[in-house]
């Protein structure tokens, strides 16, 4: 039986690595690969690595940059990301140490890409695989993982890393419950940075013939930064390592860089609320903070102008690299690592609508008929519903309340009228049927913590209509984040229908 007070194996415990630059004799195991690609391969794992180094042309020119800029395209790995490298390396090391044997189950907490790499390797080698990842991560990653045969466990995005419901804690709990299972633990596993120290960094050096002035790397677990940074600095002490960390994360140094009000960020796979063991922050010469708007538009620019089908974290890296490169002379070279590809984000930043809803792209009217109301503020909507659930209500009481009201969403608020979550009739019923909650549980156990919000004075009806094309409702708040009300598509259409010249403007409900 699982021990509920079992101590958490911290992913930020002090590193015990004794590596020192240029001291000679690595304390770690070493793996080298054949530098040239063979004509045929024994399996797909042999295709990991040797990703292309591609010159950026249009983007530097558009930004007035004189120096050379190159992109290391890690999305060419067979699983679609740089994480294929560490997944394969961690499995190889575990097999050689006798920690991973035939019939074992691999369990891993991950933002998705390491999970895909591990699931791909598990499929080839015949292991079972369980991936534990936060709900924030894209559905595309879920579909790929399931296609590879992995079992998926989702955890709350907002859970602190050390909380019992966080993906790290849940993975360790599963490992204690499942016989013959192992958590490879990318946050502490030396195979993570070593995969990049032995291979990725060497590839970058050889592809550039040693001519590298700056290398720009986004930080997640930190293995990429540590492995590449250490190896390249051994090759040349003049190389500057630039670390990229999103706003809302705490990896950057000095700590003052991490201050701010941002808690949630959309870019996936980088940044954490703890400092992983494998991250050597001191190998970074300069840390830079990235933010969603800039990052995701930069990723779209890489796709549109350079034809590089990359993911959002690639945009975070590029946007920081452009700031470094703008002041460099023509004889300097900047290398940017692009961690993953477009496949995982087709319904996210690749979608114009998704970008518009979040304010990352301007929201333009679809037709002439929409223009007369498109830029009207949401505050124009009057008498919005405020279906607030009584404090302390149980799931059973909430289900009974749904039977007596036309509201399909009930809000749970704090003492200062801020919305903590939304309980929907469908979601509550599903959780009751599945046994995820009982009628006697507090309704908060079944509430949705992520939902669309709009600010009454700042959001336009046009942007609200975009949200309601995909969402059943939106929560309206004021400038202090206090509840104003809730609105759905029918209420928005009813308001627009009262405006002048509706018939002549030809408003269509489906477009709202």
Automatic annotation (TrEMBL):
Looking at the record, the residues that make up the CBS domain are: 444-497
Reactions accelerated catalytically: L-homocysteine + L-serine = L,L-cystathionine + H2O
An example GO CC term for this entry is: cytoplasm
- What family is reported? Belongs to the cysteine synthase/cystathionine beta-synthase family.
The portions of this protein that span the membrane are: none
Cofactor(s) needed for function: pyridoxal 5'-phosphate
Protein name, entry field: Cystathionine beta-synthase
Enzymatic class: lyase
Q: Which PROSITE patterns match?
A: CYS_SYNTHASE
The terms under GO molecular function for this entry are:
cystathionine beta-synthase activity; pyridoxal phosphate binding
Which InterPro entries does the UniProt record give? CBS_dom, CBS_dom_sf, Cys_Synth/Cystath_Beta-Synth, Cysta_beta_synth, P-phosphate_BS, TrpB-like_PALP, TrpB-like_PALP_sf
Q: What species was this sequence derived from?
A: Ooceraea biroi
Function summary? Hydro-lyase catalyzing the first step of the transsulfuration pathway, where the hydroxyl group of L-serine is displaced by L-homocysteine in a beta-replacement reaction to form L-cystathionine, the precursor of L-cysteine. This catabolic route allows the elimination of L-methionine and the toxic metabolite L-homocysteine. Also involved in the production of hydrogen sulfide, a gasotransmitter with signaling and cytoprotective effects on neurons.
The Gene Ontology biological process terms listed for this entry are: cysteine biosynthetic process from serine; cysteine biosynthetic process via cystathionine
Pfam family name, one: PALP
Q: What is its EC number?
A: 4.2.1.22
| Pathway the protein contributes to | Amino-acid biosynthesis; L-cysteine biosynthesis; L-cysteine from L-homocysteine and L-serine: step 1/2
Q: Enumerate the UniProt keywords alphabetically.
A: Amino-acid biosynthesis, CBS domain, Cysteine biosynthesis, Lyase, Pyridoxal phosphate
Residue ranges of domain Tryptophan synthase beta chain-like PALP in the record: 45-340
């Amino acid at each position: 039986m699982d021990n509920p007070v079992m101590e958490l194996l911290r992913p930020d415990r002090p590193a015990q690595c004794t590596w020192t630059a240029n001291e000679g004799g690595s304390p770690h195991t070493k793996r080298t690969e054949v530098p040239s690609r063979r004509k045929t391969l024994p399996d797909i794992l042999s295709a990991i690595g040797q990703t292309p180094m591609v010159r950026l042309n249009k983007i530097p020119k558009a930004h007035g940059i004189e120096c050379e800029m190159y992109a290391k395209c890690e999305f060419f790995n067979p699983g679609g990301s740089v994480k294929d490298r560490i997944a394969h390396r961690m499995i190889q090391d575990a097999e050689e140490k006798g920690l991973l044997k035939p019939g074992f189950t691999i369990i891993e907490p991950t933002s998705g890409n390491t999970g895909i790499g591990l699931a791909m390797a598990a499929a080839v080698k015949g292991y079972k695989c369980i991936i534990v990842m936060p709900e924030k991560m894209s559905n595309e990653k879920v579909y790929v993982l399931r296609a590879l045969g992995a079992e998926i466990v989702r955890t709350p995005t907002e859970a602190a890393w050390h909380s019992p419901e966080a993906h790290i804690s849940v993975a360790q709990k599963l490992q204690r419950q499942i016989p013959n299972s192992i958590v490879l633990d990318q946050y502490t596993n030396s195979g993570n940075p070593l995969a990049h120290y032995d291979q990725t960094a060497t590839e970058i050096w050889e592809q550039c013939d040693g001519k590298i002035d700056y290398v720009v790397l986004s930080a997640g677990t930190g293995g990429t930064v540590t492995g590449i940074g250490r190896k390249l600095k051994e090759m040349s002490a003049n190389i500057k390592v630039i670390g990229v960390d999103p706003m809302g994360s705490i990896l950057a140094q000095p700590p003052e860089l991490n201050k701010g009000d941002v808690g949630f960020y959309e870019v996936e796979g980088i940044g954490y609320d703890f400092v992983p063991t494998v991250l050597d922050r001191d190998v970074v010469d300069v840390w830079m903070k990235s933010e969603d708007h800039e990052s995701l538009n930069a990723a779209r620019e890489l796709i549109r102008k350079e034809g590089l089908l990359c993911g959002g974290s690639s945009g975070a890296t590029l946007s920081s690299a452009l700031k470094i490169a703008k002041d460099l002379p023509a004889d300097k070279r900047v290398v940017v690592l692009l961690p993953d590809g477009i496949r995982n984000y087709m319904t996210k930043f690749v979608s114009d609508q998704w970008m518009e809803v979040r304010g990352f792209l301007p929201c333009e009217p679809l037709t002439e008929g929409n223009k007369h109301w498109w830029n009207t503020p949401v505050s124009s909507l009057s008498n919005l519903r405020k279906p607030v659930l009584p404090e302390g209500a149980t799931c059973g009481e909430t289900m009974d309340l749904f039977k007596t009201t036309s509201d399909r969403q009930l809000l749970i608020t704090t003492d200062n009228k801020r919305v903590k979550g939304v309980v929907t009739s469908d979601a509550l019923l599903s959780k009751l049927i599945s046994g995820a909650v009982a009628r006697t549980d507090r309704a908060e156990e079944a509430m949705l913590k992520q939902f669309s919000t709009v600010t009454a004075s700042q959001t336009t009806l046009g942007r609200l209509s975009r949200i309601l094309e995909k969402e059943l409702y939106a929560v309206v708040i004021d400038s202090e984040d206090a509840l104003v009300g809730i609105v759905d598509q029918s209420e928005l259409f009813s308001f627009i229908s009262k405006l002048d010249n509706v018939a002549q403007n030809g408003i269509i409900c489906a477009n709202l």
